[in-house]
Amino acid sequence: MSLEITFLGTGSAFPSPSRGAPALVLRRAGQCWLFDCGEGTQTQLMRSHPRISKIFITHLHGDHFFGLPGLLCTLSLQSSPEGSRAPVDIFGPLGLRSFLWRSLELSHSQLLFPYAVHELVPTPDQCPPEEFKDFSGWDAGEALARGPPGRVLHLDPEEDSYLLVEDEELVVRAFRLFHRVPSFGFVLEEKPRPGKLDVQKLKDLG
C-alpha cells in the first residue's frame, strides 16, 4: 500500500506567510485524506487540487479547524451541479457538527455534495477539569433534524480507542490525548497481507 504525506501547514497558533496553520494531506489509493484544517488550508490545497474524501480534526482549537467551512465551500465550487461527488466524511471531537452546521447556515452556504460529521465523545480526563465542557446537548430539536448526518462515537474501553474507518487494507483509530481541550491522535494500521508463493516452484524444489 502506497502512502504519501504532504504538510500543508505547520505554523500552529502563529502562522506566517511561509508557514500556514496546521494541515496535512495523506494520499492513498487515489484518495486524499486531510488531517486538521487551519485557516488558509483551501489555498494550500489549490497547488495540487486533491479530491478530499475524509477529514480528521484533532481538537477544537481554532488554528486546527477554523478553515473547515471555507474549505467545504471551495470544494463545492469545484464540483459540478450535475455531478455525483462522493460524500465527505468528517471526524472530530463532539461539538464539531454543531459548529459546521451553524457556520454554513449563517453564511447561506449550500454545498453541492453531501457530508457527514462523526463526533468522538471525549472523556473528562483528557484536559484540565476546569477546561472540560460538555457539548452533548448542543444539537437538539430542530438543529439535530436539519443538521448533517453522522455517528456519535464512544470510547471502546477494551481497545482504549475509537474505531473510525476499516476497509480491506487498513484500520483507522483515534486515541485520546491530554491537552487544554480534549484532543485526539489518529493511527492508520495496515492489515496483514498474505505473501505470494509460487506453489509449483516450491514443489519442484522439494
UniProtKB/TrEMBL annotation:
<dbReference type="GO" id="GO:0042781">
    <property type="term" value="F:3'-tRNA processing endoribonuclease activity"/>
</dbReference>
<protein>
    <submittedName>
        <fullName>RNZ1 protein</fullName>
    </submittedName>
</protein>
<dbReference type="GO" id="GO:0005634">
    <property type="term" value="C:nucleus"/>
</dbReference>
<dbReference type="Pfam" id="PF23023">
    <property type="entry name" value="Anti-Pycsar_Apyc1"/>
</dbReference>
<dbReference type="InterPro" id="IPR036866">
    <property type="entry name" value="RibonucZ/Hydroxyglut_hydro"/>
</dbReference>
